[in-house]
TrEMBL record:
Pfam families attached to this UniProt entry: PAC1
Naturally occurring in which organism (per UniProt): Goodea atripinnis
Family: Belongs to the PSMG1 family.
Protein name: Proteasome assembly chaperone 1
InterPro entries hit by this protein: Proteasome_assmbl_chp_1
Amino acid sequence: FLSAYVLASANWDAVGRAVAWNERSRSATGQSGEESACVFYRHKDDLSVLICHVTCYIAEDQLFQWTEKVFDCLQSRELTVTVLSDRSVADYKTAEYLSSSSAPFLRSLHSSVFSDQPVCQSLEQPNIITGLPAAVLNHCQVNRIAAVVYHCYNDVSGPDSVTVETYRPVLSKLGRSIQADCSPSADVLRRFVRSSEIQSNLYI
């Protein structure tokens, strides 16, 4: 979503990079060391807006250390963190039947000091979030930082136009600094889809 609809514009400067070295990131097919990194972008007109675009795998034993290092570089006062993540709808637990038209959909979790109203309902028990989104939210909860995680449950192996549209309401909450491009160029979308297809074995 960020690659195709936000970062493709000329309003962002890459200001830093963090590489997570582990077995999975080194052996990722079609990804170079630079491509399998976490890249930090800063808005040209509003320097207080920062995007951390994570395109690499971060192992479970690296989550705490990685999160600590990133937040050590940020001023926690008046900081608000928004996390966008996705997961297969097969991992979503519910007693009700989910029709094929139900996905994709958003669920949210937030820290106790987050005072704004999320754009979707909270994640129901016994569902949980894991990995990097959970590590970031846990860090924010412990350090009393306003944070919200938006979890998109989808039924496709890679991102498509319907899935990325699901995130659009989140941007309305982020103000004018982060705007989605309503019609990204064909070259941007083609590059985005091609990078997703490299790791897909759906038709093999």
